[in-house]
Specification:
Elements (H helix, E strand, L loop, with lengths): L1 H21 L3 E7 L9 H13 L4 E6 L2 H9 L3 E4 L3 H9 E6 L15 E4 L24 H9 L8 E6 L2 H10 L4 E6 L16 H11 L3 E5 L12 H4 L3 H11 L1 E5 L19 E3 L18 E4 L4 H5 L6 E4 L3 H7 L7 H4 L3 E3 L2 H12 L6 H11 L7 H13 L1
Helix pairs in contact: 2-15
Amino acid sequence: MKKIVSIIKYLINIPIYLLSKIIKPNENIWIFGAWFGDKYADNSKYLFEYVNRNCHNIKAIWLSNDSNTVKLVKKKGYKSYKTYSLMGYFYSIFAKYGFVSTGMFDINFIPTYNMKLINLWHGIPLKKIVMDDFITRVIPKDNLYNKLKNFLFPFLQDNRYYSVIATSDDINKIYQSAFKGLTKRVDTIGQTRCDAFYIPVAETEFTKKLNLIKQKGKKIGIYMPTHRREGKIDFSKFLIDELDNLNNELISNNVILLIKLHYYHQKDINKLQKDYSNIIFIKDNDIEQDIYSILSLTDFLITDYSSIYFDYLHSNKPIIFFAFDKDDYLKNDRAFYFEYDEVTPGEKAYNWSELYKKMKLIVNNNDSYIEQRKIINDRFNQYQDGHNCERVVEWIKSLER
């Protein structure tokens, strides 16, 4: 049944795709989207807002499948439409540039013929991605259905990126491998979302809450684990039996810990919702869908294999690497591009007891990884000045000369 519904949707969109072949795109119309059209976040968001503030000749449009996301963007004073609405189709056809953070489905499944689709991506990869991921990557079957689908609907083939944006020479090389056959080029410019570390934090109800916590002399940590098998494993089971002990440890260390699960595990957080004095579970609605809006207010990060730590290096604040399932992860989830210990500049913990010891070190200002963080930051984040959005815009302008 799903296949039949998909085919019907594709058939409806064939005229749109054909029409886009004969319409000359407008270089001053840019469309943006993120996370399969579900969220207002990530690199796309920061570039979108920069363009709205600084490039008055550009009509920047945010597309989303989610009505609440469209309302959120409009509330901020920007233009946003449902992806498959009349206006969504209109701007998709006429846009010269499209910007995504995960893939073409961030804006729509029709990468219109003359649009230059630019993938800003969603994090410096420690774990192998896209074509390099031989554990979880699903290779389409070479059957009649897929052959027919690709022949009839060429717009479904995700091989039309004009560029993928990298953050350093090392990452540029990785993207050339990971996106081989999927992009025309890879350009080293920097992640636009990392500009958030260099600008004042916007005042919201949640940031007011965090500032009040800091005024009381408490430290704020944030735990951000990566996903397990694209959400196919319930992450709450790793946490639920330990939360009482964790809360007690946080009380004794005068720490408030924010817990933000990965996009793929957002549903799992509902099983953890219980009132704790020193634990705050973050949902997207709490932070207007964007974790980067609050990261500068935290004092340390706890993560595992998430790309968030490469970004957090911009803050030069301590990181604890809580890799409790590393062996299983490497075997059943993702391989790594690098030797884990060589590129993770921070305390390591492999069980809850070790985590509590490492956290106590950090809280007591025993930070012995300052130099190592700088080395890794310089290696993977070529630009550390808060001007990545500006650089992307200047790069786009250079394409028009």
